[in-house]
Hints:
- The protein has helices at 8-17, 34-40, 58-67, 71-76, 85-97, 111-119, 131-145, 156-172, 175-178, 192-204, 220-227, 250-259, 268-282, 288-304; strands spanning 30-32, 43-48, 78-81, 101-105, 123-126, 148-149, 181-187, 209-215, 262-266, 310-315.
- The protein is of the alpha/beta class and 327 residues long.
- The longest helix has 17 residues, at 156-172.
- 55% of the residues are buried.
Amino acid sequence: MKTRGESLAQAYLRRILKARVYDVAVESPLEFAPRLSARTGNRVLLKREDLQPVKSFKLRGAYNKMALLSPEDRAHGVIAASAGNHAQGVALAAQRLGCRAIIVMPVTTPEVKVQAVRERGAEVVLHGDSYSDAHAHARELQAASGLTFVHPFDDPDVIAGQGTIGLEILRQHRPADDGPLHAVFVAIGGGGLIAGVAAYIKALEPQVKVIGVQTADSDAMAQSLEAGRRVTLNDVGLFSDGTAVRQAGRETFEVCRHYVDEVVRVDTDAICAAIKDVFQDTRSILEPAGALAVAGMKAWLARERVKHQTVVAINCGANMNFDRLRF
Length: 327
């Protein structure tokens, strides 16, 4: 992917600047959160990816990948594995591009996400208890069908699509009003979102911290970065189903190893508190994965005793399964 003498971040910068996402995505607002700001003693800005047409950021990477396929590959169709939000992105992209899409989803996927995928014309196959189970089955189906696999995170074109969020954050941030940008907090499942955001921000503003957030029971990327190699978890927690990934991607791990400053772990109580925090500021209800960045931001600011700084948390999804709140 890199040319001679070019850094990994510069290579992704080129890809992100050329990414084709705005046929389907909107430039989501970067909004001031007054209550979170008062509570933390910092200027908190929320990147509202929950306002995308599929209520999450995932359509960016899916569409960019599929728009760059050859006409022959698109005509043949695509296949993907997803816990829900990537599935909706692929389904919307296929609908817009006029191609067939098969989505393999874990049986644990919230019904709201399954129904949303079917409503966009994609074929849904339910298999396994986690993303990793669904991914393995999708690969088997791909080998038998010859469809093009659209990975939810471990693909340079998908990463570049997600990286347009980093582009927008730097473009929308107003230093004259907000002060210098101190840190950006990003949820991590397989790592596609944070890889794209970190590569872009570090290429242009390397002093800005990029901090990942994972649940303590689905922390494959955090463990991998600590070990210096990709770690596979035996099982994952399912409360934050959108980030329940047993192993980080090969490409995403490489990018995060170079450009992510730290990964914060949070528990279910912290996520629930963050969902409430965001609701109080925006009147939007995030899904658990969508509130991860806010939960991690609060924990990190308190731990580091940071005050009077400008920070961004990416609200990455709002496809809430209300039955999950029972747990």
